[in-house]
Design brief:
globular; 3-stranded antiparallel sheet; 269 residues; 2 domains; alpha+beta
């Protein structure tokens, strides 16, 4: 299982080397797009990726020697991304084929196996230079790729692409199973509450109004306090009050055995 962990590099003067490398990667991208279009215009078929990679390698070791600032595997990653874009275009996943990009809009380059080394917590060596980044969480799994990315504000971020180990996969699977079970139970409880009748859902709230209805109808004497002497006056202004779920009941005052005048709570409509 693949994972990604992205962190931001701290600002320093050495970041200019990463910006220059991204600009050179943009130059390689545009050159590859131009070669691909020219080959298709001349021969009416797609340029094989192996031939394109071999040609870029010869240029890198020849007159385009400044391309060596970008590693050989990074150049291969550029061509891989180019052909992935063409495949997505022919499959209908994207609306237009890969095209030229301005240097300031080109974002990243990728290091696969070489060119980077994590030398400590929040420290990494990229292309022979040390950088510090804000490592807010541990990097889990085995690191396979490191992508240096530039955002619109010219800040540099690094993304570690890692593969989870067996123990990490097991722990992630257990956590995912627990989360799925919790969501299923929550959905089941919500369905039961929606399908249950209102009387069952508000049984605790209706217990007091039902008792008051029986009390007003004089079906029985109130059970608390145990020995009430008599029902006293009812205030006409508060005689009937809207209860829960449209029921109505009276505001009753009664005198307990100890002589205290107690008022039953009034429910607002």
């Amino acid at each position: 299982m693949r994972q990604s962990f992205q962190f931001k590099l701290f600002g320093c003067k050495r970041l200019k080397h990463l910006h220059r490398t991204i600009n050179i990667a943009a130059e390689i991208w545009n050159h590859a797009v131009a070669l691909h279009r020219r080959y298709y215009r001349l021969f009416k078929k797609t340029l094989p990726k192996a031939r394109l990679q071999a040609h870029l390698a010869r240029l890198r070791n020849g007159k385009m020697s400044h391309w060596k600032a970008v590693g050989s595997q990074s150049v291969q990653a550029i061509t891989d991304r180019l052909y992935m874009g063409w495949e997505a275009f022919f499959a209908g996943d994207i609306k237009r084929p890969p095209t030229f990009r301005k240097r300031r809009k080109y974002r990243s380059f990728t290091l696969k196996q070489t060119g980077y080394k994590v030398i400590g917590h929040g420290r990494i060596r990229i292309l022979g230079r040390n950088y510090r980044f804000n490592q807010s969480r541990p990097i889990e799994g085995t690191i396979k790729t490191v992508t240096v990315r530039r955002d619109a504000l010219a800040d540099i971020h690094i993304t570690f692409g890692s593969v989870a180990t067996l123990a990490l996969r097991r722990s992630l699977a257990i956590g995912s199973a627990k989360l799925d079970r919790h969501r299923a139970e929550q959905a089941e409880n919500e369905a039961v509450q929606q399908n249950s009748p209102p009387s069952q859902r508000t049984s605790a709230r209706l217990a007091f109004p039902d008792h008051m209805d029986r009390l007003v109808a004089c079906d029985r004497t109130p059970s608390s306090p145990k020995r009430p002497e008599m029902l006293t006056r009812v205030d006409p202004s508060q005689r009937w009050i809207a209860g829960v779920d449209g029921q109505s009941f009276a505001a009753i005052e009664y005198r307990g055995v100890e002589g205290w005048l107690e008022h039953l709570p009034l429910l607002s409509p």
